Amino acid sequence: MDKSGGALGLGYSDKVHDPYSDDPALSFRRPQSYADNSDVSLVHNAQDIGRAGVYEDLEYAEPYADEGKKVEPEETSPMKRLFGTGKYPLDQRIEDKKRGIGRQKYPFVVWALTIAMVGVFINELVVNSRAQGTPVSLKPVVNPMLGPSESALINLGARFPPCMKIVQGVPETMQMACLNDTANPPNQLCSLEDICGFGGFHNQTPNQWFRFITAIFLHAGFIHIILNMIAQLTVSAQIEREMGSAGFLITYFAAGIFGNVLGGNFSLVGAPSIGASGAIFGTVAVTWVDLFAHWKYQYRPVRKLVFMTIELILGIALGYIPYVDNFAHLGGLCMGLLVGTTLYPVISPTKRHKLVMWGFRLAAIPLAIVLFVVLIRNFYTSDPYAACSGCRYLSCIPTSSNNHCQGTGLTMTSGGSSI
User: Peptidase S54 rhomboid domain: from which residue to which, for each copy (predicted)?
Assistant: First the structure.
């Protein structure tokens, strides 16, 4: 076994700590009372030993002076706490980084989001069951993700540009298959306004901008939500432990929303998109920030880089599955890098390293804002396809069913005739 990391790759010695050993490498710092009084009470001993294992707020850890007396931590501002620059010994931060210990013990935000998404998915199944008689759409076509129909997903808040703005080639008079339609071609048609739901458009143009957000909480079926929640409860949960809930929440939703904005610009407008994949990719991006910022503290960083690259390629490949949008993945990854660089607590052992990190942070903040403003404006005021006609192939495999990724990718009926 490699003593520097062992089989588990934790990056620290595998020797067992012994609080009573004379070997400094095997013992915690002994209180002065051990040397002065061999009859120290067991209660007192347990308290001293327990302190080394108590999981505290790592940005406010209380170091010990040489004589074993506690040193009161200095007052730390909220900004320092957010960026991980509060009172906390550098050596201890490095050791905790190698052990995978972060700012907090429990990923409360990840747990809350997972519960909310499971609840929303149950509601999706109920809605489809009421409409078609079965929670999983089997007619007119089988949902490959084993979930509700396309119309039900749009009605519940999927990112679907025709519900959000006027789309060239998709008239407001367009009719689509109703939620309860099971025929192919559809014999029960509903207006676009009825399918979009949420009270319709109130005699105005489609304006359901909130779909950039609601789509994050929806999933296309059992396969989709199981894969996403596994990733969320593992990778995303660890990032929350390391970043803290506040920084994680900002990163998660910035990545998820921006992924939907990017997809709204360049994906086929007739293909609804849903899922937390963009937000999860944003948290995956933070692991890349961690890898390069803490390269010398990582266990076998080159091997880790190879595995992370393979995982990233597989994740992008999954973006070609129906109802999943690769632009959401790529947009979430991009915004996760920018926001993660800004908010992730990086260990800076030297002034040069600290200056480099602050340089990246100061560049990332305005770039993230500019990307949001430009792409949201582009979504509502121009035709993104005109600027990048080939971009759609990043999230679409050309087939006869989608007109080889041309047009809107939507089969429409208006006035009873096919368009």
Answer: 207-344
Largest CA distance in the chain: 95
Measure the CA–CA gap between 389 and 311, rounded to whole angstroms: 28
- CA dihedral sign, ordered 306, 340, 327, 184: positive
Name the one residue in this structure whose structure tokens are 């490949």: 317
The two tokens of residue 396 are 């679409």
b/e sequence 385-401, b meaning 16+ C-beta within 10 Å: beeeeebbebbbeeeee
Fold of 108-418: Rhomboid-like fold (1.20.1540)
The pLDDT tens digits of the residues spanning 305-340 come to: 999 999 899 888 888 887 888 999 999 999 999 999
User: 3-state SS of 102-113?
Assistant: CCCCCCHHHHHH
Edge-to-edge strand list for the sheet holding 175-177 = 189-191, 175-177, 413-414, 417-418
Write down the residue that tokens 């099971």 correspond to.
182
Domain with CATH 1.20.1540.10 in the chain: 108-418
Write out pLDDT tens, residues 124-169. Answer: 999 999 999 999 998 888 888 999 999 999 999 999 999 999 887 7
Q: ω before 185 within 30° of 0 (cis)?
A: yes
Half-sphere exposure of 39 (CA within 13 A, CB side): 0
CA of 231: how far to CAs of 25, 212, 225, in Å? Answer: 37, 21, 10
Give how far Cα 222 sits from Cα of 100, 108, 118, 135, 319, Å: 31, 24, 10, 11, 16
CB atoms within 10 A of CB 407: 15
Residue for token pair 């009859």: 39
The set of residues, in sequence order, having a beta carbon less than 8 Å from that of 123 and lying 6+ positions away, is 156
ω into residue 24 within 30 of 0, thus cis? Answer: no
